[in-house]
């Protein structure tokens, strides 16, 4: 039974790793967008 679960476990680990990487990328993009927004607001003040 455990041997049957192992492939699923490694798939879950890979999926979790990909999710973390994707989240990190999104946070970086979001951070850049927020910074651009702040700079454009400062331009109008």
From TrEMBL:
Residues 1-22 are annotated as: Disordered. This is Glutathione-regulated potassium-efflux system protein KefB. It comes from Vibrio maritimus. Residues 9-22 have a biased composition (Basic and acidic residues).
